[in-house]
Amino acid sequence: MTVATPTFDLVVAANRLPLDRVVDDSGESSWRRSPGGLVTAMESVMQGRDAAWVGWAGEPGPAPEPFSDSGMYLQPVCLSPTEIQEYYEGFSNDTLWPIFHDVIVPATFHRNWWNTYRTVNHRFAQAIAQTAAPGATVWVHDYQLQLVPAMVRAMRPDVRIGWFNHIPFPPVELFAQLPWRRALLEGLLGADFLGFQRTADAENFLRACRRLLGMATKADTVTFTPPGDDPSARRTVRASAIPISVDFRALDELARTPVVIARAAQIRASLGDPKILLLGIDRLDYTKGIRHRLKAYEELLGDKAIAPPDVTLMQVATPSRERVDAYRHLREEVERTVGSINGEYSDIGSPAVFYLYQTYPRDEMAAMFLAADVMLVTPLRDGMNLIAKEYVACRHDLGGALVLSEFAGAWHELHQAFICNPHDVEGLKQTIMRAITAPQDERRRRMKALRKRVSDHDVQRWATRYLDALASAPARPHRPTRASDEERRGAERANRSNRRALDKASERTGQR
Ligand code: GDG
After folding, report:
1. Phi (first) and psi of residue 316, to 5 degrees
2. Is 367 near ligand 1, meaning CB less than 6 Å away?
3. Per-residue pLDDT tens for 231-257?
4. Residue 147 contacts by C-beta under 8 Å, 6 or more apart in sequence?
5. Which of 29, 257, 317, 483 is found 20 to 30 A from 378 (Cα to Cα)?
6. Distance separating alpha carbons of residues 141 and 17, to the nearest angstrom
7. Cβ(201) to ligand 1 under 6 A?
8. C-alpha 39 to ligand 1 mean position (Å)
9. What is the widest separation between alpha-carbon atoms in the chain?
10. If you measure from the C-alpha of residue 35 to the centroid of ligand 1, how many angstroms do you get, rounded to a whole number?
11. Is residue 342 packed enough to be buried (19+ CB in 10 Å), middle (13-18) or exposed (0-12)?
12. pTM for the full predicted model
């Protein structure tokens, strides 16, 4: 007897599950919280909802059996070693990621990566279609799954589909470089609602629809006629900004616990009790501006504007995408620079840079935030940057100062930070010095305003706003939310033929 897959009214799909399966040396497997901004944000949103999460479990090979964790149903999707290379490391992180981040490093185009991207997106769409209850809400996340909305729509016309882009959406001039630009846009247009971090991202998307697909846009909507379809199948898709945030209250509470406060003091003491502790915490990614930050810091040391042990920098670089060349090179470059700064400016017992290539538990991160006098968030391009908001949420003491790049989505909300352009090294140096020397009153005033903003616009509010926007999106007026039996049978037949068509299409492209 086969056990039917349970279905859910809310299905979230993201490249990664919130938990990774890790296998230790003795072959024992266990589950560990997976890293990254998306999981951090969605974790608190999923709590207490009867929902399923579809995603990859982080290990190559067959998918583990579905299971439940903290009331959430986890539906793993398998990826073979080749698919990890071509869909994830290749197309997602070496083609799309650079194009969507201002081509800070050049993008790589390979047709076989694209074919694998389609195959994997189709697999995700099938898993979603199996897990979604009739009339369910499906919330797809991020650039790895841009074809999923249209694929799910073809399989399950009864569900409501949203997509949220955690990274920037590029200007059309950059997006247009992608040989698969049309298919990507059409994939996204299968959704009812598309959410972006900034208004500029939503506008870039709408402009791409106008310029590359010749579609009509009006305010924040685009009218879409599916390819080969009749005009009566026209749909209106809404695209607008709903900036992501953090769980303010949970972080605030965590940072108020005596153990975190004591650990913050301990961190400062073990760094030699500097007068000013500068802090950077980033995934080791070329978008995060770590090299520019180190350059500015090195020059400030060279200018004798600052010196250890009075001023010191702690840089945490969280390991990321270690098998992609650009990330390997970045790590080498960052570590060479840290070595050279320390060689020149450290003294016995007082290093100029404390560099940590590691991942830390959340309470340790909170203690670091609480210990730092100046937080350096200097990305060259970043969808939002949750670190900036997490720092603010932890500073219940109104201490600390945030240096923030105008190229982070967070800049659009956190105007009271010390704003910098990381490409302008001279300007960055001045901003860091302003943050270091600002009178305590001014720092407190700024921090208070920043905290109010993040507390009023926390991650719970983000999720509510997103789901409300999705529920009231203008699209799909053609079908009732819950189909009649007859309609459902018809839809199922259509689904089967759609699946066959999609399977055949995937096979054809796979053979090319
Ligand atoms: C994408 C977009 C957007 C980092 N190191 C550790 C750790 N982290 C957590 C942080 C934070 C998250 O990872 C990183 O957030 P970012 O915003 O910097 O994000 P990306 O991973 O680049 O994510 C980004 C985000 O999506 C959300 O939409 O803001 O622009 O690129 O939450 O705390 N957490 C723990 N240990 C670490 O060592 N526990």
Report:
1. -100, 125
2. no
3. 777 889 999 999 999 999 999 999 999
4. 117, 118, 121, 122, 125, 183, 184, 187
5. 257
6. 11
7. no
8. 8
9. 79
10. 7
11. middle
12. 0.90
